[in-house]
Amino acid sequence: MTQQQSDTDLINAVLAGNTDVYTELVKRHQRFVFTLAMRFTKNREDAEEVAQDCFVKAYRALGTFQQNSKFSTWLYTITYTTAMTFLRRKKMDTTSIDDVESGIQLQDRSSTDVDLLSVERKSGHTWLNNAIAALPADDAVIITLFYKGEQSLEEIGTALHMSSNAVKVKLHRARIRLKEKLQYLLKDEVKELL
Fold first, then answer.
1. Which end of the chain is more exposed for a tag (fewer CB within 10 A), N or C?
2. CATH architecture type of domain 7-193
């Protein structure tokens, strides 16, 4: 399958019996589904389990996808509900802001180049991930969906079962909390440099 094929083309091929192309859908969306799962679980192993469950559920329910929204929106809805179910099952606190390390866990740890990894950790991207990881899970998901997933307010509302106005208010508040977290984290970084 070529990269030019849309998600809809791949879905239609899977539904027509060519189940091998589902792998391409997984490849396209696995990183972002994992990132969302990580925002909720704050644990790499749990996030991997949630992400895997999401893709299994999506495959089984692919015939119910009505294609009146983007596949990614539908998949992120599954991710949200799967993560919430997982957290209820494990009885985890979804609003913990103590785990700043979860932002670092998102990086690919397979790299053997220690110098490159240390440079990446000091990049602005890492600081942003650390700040997002320090947010409550609901804020982190909305920020992630809006900025990294490039989802509209309506699409986020669909995924999170909220009105677009509620998403807009939550996004505004999440931005304020993100700014505070970044200021706090970067203030400590400036102290280290001086």
1. C
2. Orthogonal Bundle (1.10)
Please, are residues 33 and 81 in contact by the beta-carbon 8 Å criterion?
no
- Is the pLDDT higher at 119 or at 133? 133
pLDDT at residue 123 in the model: 56
Task: Please give the model's pTM, rounded to 2 decimal places.
Answer: 0.59
Which residue in the block uniquely carries the two structure tokens 């490039």?
150
The secondary structure of residue 145, as a DSSP letter, is I
Q: How far is CA 73 from CA 7, 51, 152, 170, in A?
A: 12, 15, 10, 18
SS (H, E, C) 65-85: CCCCCCHHHHHHHHHHHHHHH
Domain-by-domain residue ranges, the chain? 7-193
Q: How far apart, in whole angstroms, are the C-alpha atoms of residue 36 and residue 77?
A: 11
50 or 114, which is more confident? 50
